Amino acid sequence: MTCEEGNRVHFDNALDLTGAIRRKEVSCREVLAAHLERIERLNPTINAIVTLTAERALEQAAAADDRLANGGEVGPLHGLPIAHKDLASTAGIRTTYGSPIFADNVPDRDDLIIDRLRAAGAITVGKTNVPELGLGSHTFNPVFGATRNPFDTARSAGGSSGGAAAALATGMVPVADGSDTGGSLRNPASFCNVVGLRPSPGRVPSWPDAAPWGQLSVKGPMARTVADVALLLSVVAGPDVRNPIALETPGASFRPPLDGDLRGLRIAWTPDFAGSVPVDREVVEALAPTLKVFADLGATVDQACPDLSGADEVFRVQRAWQMELTYGALLDEHRGSLKADAVWNIEEGRKLTGPDIGRATKLHAALYQRVRQFFERFDVLLAPVSQVVPFDVELDYPSEVAGVPMRTYLDWMAACYLVSATGCPALSVPAAFTPDGLPVGLQVVGPHRQDRQVLSVAHAFEQATGVGQRRPTF
C-alpha cells in the first residue's frame, strides 16, 4: 500500500491501514497527508469537519513515525487519523457544541473517550459537525451551518453525529467517535451508508458526567465497516472507576475478527414496530430483500416485535429531565441564543413532577423485563433505522412520515429512540439504496449487553451484501 495508489488509501479500512503502518509499508505522515488532502478538497462542499487541527496532527504523525522507527510500543490505532464529535471536550481544541454560546470554547481537558483514543495512538485531525447542542437527527447549527449528505448534497446527512458520518462516507477519516441518545450514532450512519454502533449503557463509560447513573445517552464508534467499529469499540470500551455504571468487560474482548456464522440464529423482523411507528414506504421496500440474505445465511426469520408500550413515555421523560439538568442554566442566561426546540425540550423537563418521573421509572422497569423475555425467544431483532430516507437539507426535520404529522423534532426518530429506551445495544449497517440512490440502513438490535453478538450479525450481513462498499461520486 502506498499513497501513490490514488484515492484507494482514503477508503482502505482501519484494520488494513493500521497493519500497513506497523509493517512500514506506509508512514503515518503519508496516511495523514492523504486524508488532509481529501478534507481540503471535499469539506467545503460537505461541511463535515468544522475545526481542523492539521498542524497539530502533522506533528503527532511525525512523532508516531519516530516511535515506530525506534521500536517503541504502539497502540491498536497507531497513526490512524480520527475526527471527534464537537460535543466531546478536547483539550486545547475548540469545542462549540454547535452553539453560538460556546463558539470560542476551548476545554482544558479531554473527555474519557478522547483520552482512550489518543492513548491507543489515534491522531486527531479535527472536530465533526453537530446540531446545536446535539439536538435532533439533522446536523445544522448557527455556528457552522449544515452538513450535507455525500450521496446527494441537497439532503441531510442525519445527526447528531452527522459530521462524523459524512466524513467517513467521503474518505476524510477512516474512523470517528460519536454519541447517541435517540439515534445519533445510528440515523447518520443510515443516511450516509456507514456503520454506527449504539453500545450498551456503561460499555463506553463517560467522564466527566453530570448524571453518571443515566443510561439514555451513550458514546460509541463509527466507521465504514463493522470490523472497524469493533476495533474502535475495543479501545473505548472497558471499566473506569469514575463511572458508576461502567461495565467490567475489557474492551479488548471486542477486537476483530468477528464470527460470521448465522446458522440456527433466531431473528425477529419488524418493519414498523408492530404498527406503532410510521415508516415511509420506500424505506420498507428497500429493506424487504434483506430478510432473504439472513435466511440464505442459515438464520430463521419471523415477523415479531417486543411489546414496547411505555417506551415512548420513558424516552421523552428521561430526555426532558436530562435536558433540564444539562441545559437549564443556559435557558436562564441565554434564552435568546437557544433554538426553539432546545427551549421547548428544557421547559418540558421543568414541567415534570415527582409522579411523572415515578411513572416513567415503573414503565421502564416493566419494559426491561418484557424485552428480556422477548430475547429468550429470539437472538436478534431487525428493524428500520430511520423512518425516512435522507430529506431536504433546508428542513429542520420532516413534517410528516407516511402521511402522519410529526408534532415535534423528536417524532420522526422513534424507530431509534424506542430502542434507546430498552437499553439494548443497536447498530446501523448499510443495507440498501433507493431507486434514487439514497442509502438505507438496517438496525440490528441485540439482547441486553450482547454487543459482540450485534457486531457479529451485522458483520455477516455486511460481508454477504457488500452494500457498504458503495461510495459517493466525488
UniProtKB/TrEMBL annotation:
It comes from the Bacteria. It holds the Pfam family Amidase. Residues 30-455 form the Amidase domain. Coiled coil: none annotated. SUPFAM superfamilies: Amidase signature (AS) enzymes. This is Amidase. It comes from Saccharopolyspora griseoalba.
